[in-house]
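Open question from group meeting: does this chain pack into something compact, or does most of it stay loose? Before anyone orders reagents, we agreed to write out a predicted structure and look at it together. Recording both the input and the output here so the notebook holds the full record.
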Amino acid sequence: MRTRELDDAVLHVATSQYGAFTIGQTKAIGIGRDLRRERIRQGRWIVAQGEVLVLAASPDTWRRRLMIGILVAGGDAAVYSVAALAFWGLKGFPEEPVEPRFHGTRHRLVVGRCHESRYLPEDHVRVRDGLRVVCVERALCDAAAHVPKQRLSRMVDDAILQRLTTAKKLLAMCDDLATGYRRGLKALRGVVADRLDGKRPTESELEDEFLDLVRAAGLPEPERQLGLGGSTSAGRVDFLFRPRFIAEVDGGQHRWSELQRQEDDRRDAELTAAGYLVERFTKPQIRHDPEGVIRRIWEALARAA
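Structure tokens returned:
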């Protein structure tokens, strides 16, 4: 095979791996030590770590660093924990700031942390965009020990809303991992159990905060993100306290738009005409006047009884 053809073969492999490739892959193509050293001396290839190289022309991206880590750690390695959550696109986990982490064999990594797992079956791993990454369920279980329960709850809701997983799949993963001690599984089980009864997750951090206030005050548990069906065309409501009290949560920017305010007023009037009592709660009220919010809810429940 001519030198140009050898270079093209390496380019083909590296392109599918975000610019990274191994010495073993170059050997499989037919490149010997002399040509490999020449490409490194010319600056066309760069040694990333150990037997992993990168094309000098390839950009140093977060995903390239993930690929380097996987190639260094071994063929059975996979991105895990918060790095996997970033990869799957969960809110609050942007790619670049998250340090790459890998399940794999013990190895010193320049590009991130390598964790040796005694239990990483292949059915916990997905290949997505050319990278081995643990599934969402396993990533949430791995991350559960490192985040507060309130944030864990938001992470689970986000994963379910994006249809990346379901409550049943998460519980099955908890059961699969329960044979060994894993911190955080108890908290995750508690979060998941609350979603197994068909309750829809909330859709924002502010709605989570409102629900926390309700629970802390010992108020009845409302149904959330509920479509009212044929009784009205107003669509889904944030919270419904049976039998007929609706609580809507408005973010800080929600009512700045005059058109949005008019639409909210129209929906409220339609819901009122359908027999519901509607109250709106803003971000400043929820965060800075929780006692006032609870008082209004108690009063509304009494009126709606």
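Observations to bring back to the group:
The chain is about 45% helix and 15% strand.
The domain at 205-304 is CATH 3.40.960.10 (Endonuclease; Chain A).
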